[in-house]
Amino acid sequence: MVKGFWLAVIIFLVTAYALSGCTTSEQVDQKCPTSMLMSQWVEDTTNINPLIPLKHVRLKEDHVSVFIAAFNATPPPSSYDPDTIIIFTSPGDPRGVVGFGKDNCLIMAHAFPLIFVSSWLAGRPVRVQNNNVPGKTL
Hints:
By secondary structure, the chain is of the alpha+beta class. The protein has one domain. Helices cover 36% and strands 20% of the residues. It has a four-stranded antiparallel β-sheet with strand order 1-2-3-4. β3 and β4 (105-113) form a beta hairpin. The longest helix has 18 residues, at 2-19.
């Protein structure tokens, strides 16, 4: 549980740093001047703490469309249109960190329960009691 807490803190800090526009010139591409390149986000997230074993997968194009259709249909409704989705997992952590990218720029990253991620991968929207999945809105 402690490892999961620190994973969430690390992912939050890397993502907040990336989306704040406080990146170095090496991390900034002309296409995404206020966010981090997806490749840089993956590298930073992977390397930020070598004690936490992380695995990630980049969804193929047809899987991106299935995942995002289910994600957008999950309350509250959204209209994300990423062309890249990368999912990080760590053994023993019940959450996965999902990074959404467009034109190789990170547009959002958030930790979600793996049961939600599995449902979205299968093309099924998630239904929750309060009709609102935390972290889904900008």
